[in-house]
Write a structure and sequence with these properties.
The chain contains 6 helices and 2 strands; from the N terminus they run αααββααα. It is mainly alpha-helical. It has one domain. It is flat and about 45 Å long.
Length: 153
């Protein structure tokens, strides 16, 4: 993606994604979320995921997975998932866990597991929104030669 967007734009997108995701976290969680640390680059990584969805929705995202199977022992390794499947699942999963974290804190006083799910959601939507005006949905119809995940890099 850095080759496609250019180094400067990619860095600015990454840094702004980190800031925007932190801001979304602070707005949505507010003072009640003081127990959830806001450390790391997960919001910025989520920004890259959202941007990738605009550029290459049919491109594969490598995901490390562990499947525990009963009869055959299971699987551990990377799997390739198309972005148009991965990103909606990522968004729904983070939204579900964010709401679950809030509910558990309100109902029974159990604090969440220390993951800033709202920051992930803010990052994904920022990555989507920052590229959409520049690229539209080029990935839906464009040549797939720039999908770097398929080239094994």
């Amino acid at each position: 993606m850095e080759d496609r967007l250019g180094k400067l734009f990619f860095i600015l997108m990454y840094i702004s994604g980190s800031a925007i995701s932190a801001l979304v976290f602070l707005i949505t969680v507010g003072p009640k979320g003081g127990h959830v640390p806001l450390v790391g680059a997960s919001g910025a990584i989520a920004t890259v995921i959202g941007a990738f969805f605009v550029l290459a929705p049919f491109g594969d995202i490598k995901h490390y997975a562990i499947f525990l199977g009963y009869s055959r022992g299971g699987f551990m390794g990377t799997i390739k998932i198309p972005a148009f499947i991965y990103v909606p699942i990522f968004v729904l999963q983070n939204y579900f866990y964010a709401k679950l974290q809030e509910s558990m804190q309100e109902m029974i006083g159990i604090e969440g597991g220390g993951v800033a799910y709202w920051a992930h959601l803010g990052g994904v939507f920022w990555g989507y929104l920052i590229l959409l005006p520049f690229y539209g949905f080029t990935g839906w119809t464009a040549d797939k030669s720039y999908i770097w995940f398929k080239k094994g890099r």
